[in-house]
Design goal:
The chain has about 300 residues and is an alpha/beta fold. It is about 50% helix and about 10% strand. Helix 4 crosses helix 8. It is elongated.
């Protein structure tokens, strides 16, 4: 599986007996995983960090909260340099976990919470939830079919998670287990291109594409305006730059070869020859490097 697909953020709440007791798991590394949802529609991972970092009137917590933008560990899990610690996410007086796994979940398992509802994009949150469960199963050699339980399975008289959140996204627990297994089995495919550095993409847009768009605008050339608008967007996507301020970036995509060749032949090659004519070796190197950035982003051999 691709172990670098998502970033794991670690920002731990303060040690406090009712939320983070600071005790290691009895099993050292996690023996199994409990799939929860927060039961708090619309609340993000950051919201839950703040809540549990300030909670004083009851005992409750979980190690991990996952929303549509991040995977946030608020209590050490063992995925990073810190040893896995206990959290209070399943009641001790419910013995289903002991019967199934031989341990109390609080003492041996990670509680992994899916944030959902409100403005949270279920699809993005679910992908991160699946990946994190797959990451943990892969790291500790666990089978998703036998080592992932939902909170509802462990405490059916009281709890409906994480099935209630999955239902909101038209998924089932069976779907989740199958998707985790598929994520673990997914091959790592090296892309046949290298992303365009964001600063290079923005420089090309500012220095060449935007002026060409404005020239088309002044000339009343609607076709030209559309072309240069699309060219700028293709550069942004190839560099992981959001298409609109405040929006998430699109998945990184190879720059079309025609776009790379157009920029090279329309602007960079003439600039290189001008630098050559004036004996500007630094300029020649600069335009040569820009062209090779574009070639790499489009999967074209460098020159």
């Amino acid at each position: 599986m691709d172990k670098t697909k998502y970033k794991i953020e670690r920002r731990y709440i303060n040690v406090r007996h009712n939320t983070r007791p600071g005790l290691r798991l009895k099993t050292g590394s996690p023996a199994f995983f409990v799939a929860h949802d927060t039961g708090n529609p619309g609340a993000s991972a950051d919201n839950h960090y703040t809540y549990f970092n300030n909670l004083t009137d009851r005992s409750a917590s979980a190690q991990v909260f996952i929303d549509d933008t991040k995977i946030l560990e608020i209590i050490p899990t063992g995925t990073g340099p810190d040893s896995a610690e206990r959290a209070w996410h399943v009641l001790y007086n419910v013995k289903t976990d002991n019967e199934r796994f031989g341990y109390d979940a609080n003492d041996a398992a990670l509680g992994i919470e899916l944030c959902y509802g409100g403005k949270i994009n279920f699809g993005e949150a679910y992908k991160r939830f699946v990946w994190y469960l797959a990451y943990c199963c892969d790291k500790w050699g666990k089978n998703p079919s036998t080592h992932i339980a939902s909170h509802k399975q462990l405490d059916p008289a009281r709890k409906a998670d994480c099935e209630q959140a999955l239902l909101a996204g038209k998924k089932t627990l069976k779907d989740l287990i199958m998707d985790v297994a598929a994520e673990m089995a997914a091959p790592i495919i090296a892309p046949d291109f290298k992303p365009l550095p964001a600063n290079i993409a923005q420089s090309l847009i500012d220095n060449y594409v935007s002026p060409a768009w404005y020239a088309s605008h002044e000339a009343g050339d609607a076709v030209g305006k559309t072309h240069f608008h699309n060219l700028a967007d293709n550069l942004r996507v190839a560099a992981g730059i959001p298409l609109e301020p405040g929006k998430a970036a699109q998945p990184l995509t190879k720059l079309p070869k025609s776009n790379a060749q157009e920029i090279i032949f329309r602007w960079l090659q003439p600039a290189w020859f001008a630098a050559h004519q004036f004996g500007d070796s630094a300029g020649k190197t600069h335009y040569h490097n820009l062209a090779n950035y574009l070639r790499r982003a489009a999967g074209i051999p460098e020159e």
